[in-house]
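Field guide to reading this record: the first block holds the primary sequence, the second block holds the structure written as C-alpha cells, and the final block holds curator observations. Each block starts with its own label. This record concerns alpha-L-rhamnosidase, catalogued under organism Paenibacillus silagei.

BLOCK 1 — SEQUENCE
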Amino acid sequence: MIAIQKPRVEYQENPLGLDIRLPRISWQLHADERDVRQQAYQLQVAGAADFGSIWWDSGRVESGESLHIELKGLELQSRQIYYYRVKIWDQHNRPTEWSQAAWWEMGLLSPEEWTAEWITAPLACLAEDAEQSPLLRGSFQVDRPLARARIYVTSLGLYELELNGVRVGDTYLNPGWTSYSHRLQYQTYDVTEQLVVGDNVAGAWLGNGWYKGNLGWEHRKHIYGNRTALLLQLHLTYKDGTEQIIGSGPQWKVLPGPLLMSELYHGETYDARLAQLGFSTPGYDDTLWLAAEILPYAKHILLAQENDPVRAVQELAPVALIRTPAGETVLDMGQNMVGWLRFTVDGAAGQEYQLRHFEVLDQQGNVYTENLRTARQTVTYIAGGGGRESFQPRFTFQGFRYVQLIGFPDPLDLQDFTGVVLHSDMEPTGTFTCSNALLNQLQHNILWGQKGNFVDVPTDCPQRDERLGWTGDAQMFIRTAAYLMNVAPFFSKWLGDLAADQREDGGVPYVIPHVLGEEAHSSAAWGDAAVICPWTVYQCYGDKRILEQQYSSMQGWVEYIRRQGTDEFLWNTGDHFGDWLGLDAKADSHVGATDRNYIATAFYAYSVQLMEKTAKVLGRTEDVEKYSQLHHQVKDAFNQAYILPAGEEGPATQTACVLALMFGLVEGSAKDRTVARLIQLLEASGYHLTTGFVGTPYLNLVLADAGHSEAAYKLLLQTDYPSWLYPITHGATTIWEHWDGVKEDGSFWSASMNSFNHYAYGAVGDFLYRHVAGIEQTEEGPGYKQFLIQPHPGGGLTSAAASLESMYGTIRSEWTIDSGTIGLIAVIPPNTSATVLLPDALLGEVSETGMAAGQPLEQVPGIHSAEQLAQVVKVTLGSGEYRFQYPLRK
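BLOCK 2 — STRUCTURE
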C-alpha cells in the first residue's frame, strides 16, 4: 500500500498567517513495499475541507517531484483559508487515495491592510524608572456569535499577549530578532475560543529585548529605537458573514507594570507587590491608567513570521543542591542549558529572592561568573505575600548549568525549581549513536549546543554580553545543524536579514543582524556565509527558492571580494579573523598561524565555485560561464602564490592543508604533497589538531577523503588536550569555545572570552553522520532525492547508527561488527534512490534478507545493480529497508 503523509506548505503543518504569495507544497510517501517511485501527482486547492468547490487543480502532472511544488496561477487573498490535498501515481501508474485535507491561512499581504496604530507608553508614564516595562490594555465588544477571530500583532521590543486573562499562544521572545530597520515580523493567533459575546479585553506586556535593550560588549542600548511599542489588529468574522476590525490606538491605556527591569543579558527584576492582577480581564478598574500614545512608525517593513518561533521545548529538574566551600547555595541542573528557571516561593510581602545563573564552578568549587563579562544573568523576585507564588521570566534568557540562590530560606525543596529550555522550535531530524560512550556524549553536546545557540538567530554563545549572530560560526556549523534539525526556515529568515544588512558594495557584516560598528564587516570565511549558507540549505532541502532569493546577495559578496585584492584573482588585502583561535597562534594572539591572505583567497575560490553551481541550478547561463572562468583564474592565482613556492614540503599549517584539499584547490602532485604534509603535521603533533575555527570543521573529512580514515578516527578519539573528547572528560555537556576552557588543574583559559556553550567546534558532527555512519547527500540529488550510504567502520568501533528525517522521509544507516561479520541496515525513503558502498566486501560474499537461496544480489527486489569496485561493493537501491551481511575481511 502507498499513501501520502506529512503534507506541508512552506515546511509547515497547517500554518497560520502566511504572506508568501506563491506558496509551495511538499509531501512524503509511505509504502509497505520496496522501490516505490512517484510518476505523477495531482494537487487540488479548495475553500472547504470537503473539497465541494475546487478553486485550483493542477490536473495530472507527469513528474517525480514531491518537494516545493509551486501553486502557480492561484490568486491568494489576505486572511483566506486554503485547503489542499494531493494524490500521486507510482511508476506502475497505480494511484493513491487523496491525502487527508491540510490547510494554510494567509496573513495580511499589504501594508495598507494595517489600520491599527503603533502605541507606546507616554514618557511621563515611565519617567520615574525608564527601565520599567509597561502594561497595555484595550477593551472591546463582541456583540454576536463569532465564526473566527484572528489577532495580528508585533512590537518594537518584545511582547507577551493576554486575552481575557489567558495568555495568547505558546511562543516566547516575539516578534523575534530581525534587521528591524528593514524587516519586522508579526505573528498571527487564532483567538476564536478565547473571545466571548460581550465585554473582552486584550492586554500586553512589553520588554526591551533586542530592539531597545543592551546589545554587545560595549554597553550599547537603543540601537534600533528608544521606545517600546505595540501594533495589534484583531479581525472578527461573525457567523452572519459580517466582519469587524479592532486595532490598537489612542483608546488603549498604559501603566508601568511589576517588571522593573528586563534585559536579555542581565535578567529581570519583578516586584509582585505591583502586579496588576486581572488587568487583561473585563471589569478591571483602569481609572488610574494613562492613555496610550501614538508612535509614528513604519508598517511597510512588516512581514509574517518566517522561521520557527521560540518555544519552551523541554523541562529539566535540578539534579543536586550544592553548598560551596564559600558557603553559597547552588542548584545544579546537570546540563548546560538555555532558558530560565521557574520557581515557587512562600514569603512575606517585600521578601527578595535572587537567582544568579552561571555555567561552571571555579577551581575551588565556588560560584564563577567572570566569563559572563558584564552580563549579570540575574533574576530578582520580590514577593507579593499571601502564600505560595510562582514565577518565570518573560523577556530574557540565560545560559547556565548552575544557579546561585540568594535569599531563599532553608530547607529548600528541589521540586520548587524547574529548568525551562528555550530555543527555536525546529523539527528534530537527526540521531546518532555508536559503541563509544564518549562519542555518544559528543553527539549529545553538539545537539545541546545547537539548542542553546539557535534562539531565533544563530548566536555564538548564550550567556555572556554577546549572543550575536556571527556569520563565520553559522556557515561553519550549518551542515551539522541540518542533520540535527530542520533548519531551512531558521536560516531562510536569518539570510533575509543578511541580505538586508549587506552593504551597498556587497560587504557582509560580521554579525547578522548587524549591531556592531560600521567597520565590522567582510572578513573572509565570515562574509562567505552569504554564499555557503544558501547553497547548503538548497543541498539539504532541495530548496531552489533560497538560491533565487539570495542570488543578488551571493553575487554581491563575490563581486565585493573581486574588487578587494591588488590582483583581481587574489584576496590579499583587508582585515580578517583568519584561523580564529587556532592553536598554532603566536602568544597573546587569537589568530592562528595560517596566512590570512591564504585563507581569504581559498574562500574566495570556494565562494566563486558555489556561485558557478548556483547559476547553473538557476539556469543563468552567462553567469555560469563567468564564474567558471573566474574560479579557474582564482585557483590558478592561488597555486602560483601559495602552493608552488612551497616546494616539496607543502603548506605550512594543518589549516592551510585542509583548505587547499577541502576546496579542491590542489591537484596531481601538489595534492599528494599537501596530503603528505597534513599527515606529517599530525604526526608531529601526536595526532592532535592545531586548527581553529576555519580549519577544524573540515579536518576529519579531508583526512577521510584522502584515504586516511584511521588518522581521522585517531584524531577524533583523542581524550587529552586538545581534542573533542577532552572537554567531555572534564564534565562538559555542551561544546566549549576553547579546547581548554577548563585546564587540567581546574583553572580557566581566560575570563574575557571563554564560553562553555559555543557550537562552532560541534561542526565535527558532520563527520559523525557523513563518514562514521555514512549518510551523505549528493549534489546531483538535492534534498536527498539521491544519496549515498557509505559507512566507514574504524577507530575500534563495533557499531554506529544514524537516522535523518529528510524531506522525503526517514533515511537510516546502521552498521555492526559482530563475530567476524559486518551487518548494515539501510533505509531509503519512497521516491528516492541511494547508492550503498559496502566497505571491505566481496560481491560473492554479500547477502541481503530479501535474497532467495543462490540468487545473485542484483536480482533482489529493489536492488537495481551490484558491482565490485576494488575493496568496495557498490549497490544501487530503490526505496525500502535492506539488511546486508558479509564476512569481515580484516
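BLOCK 3 — OBSERVATIONS
The CA atoms of residues 79 and 512 lie 31 Å apart.
The longest helix spans residues 621-643.
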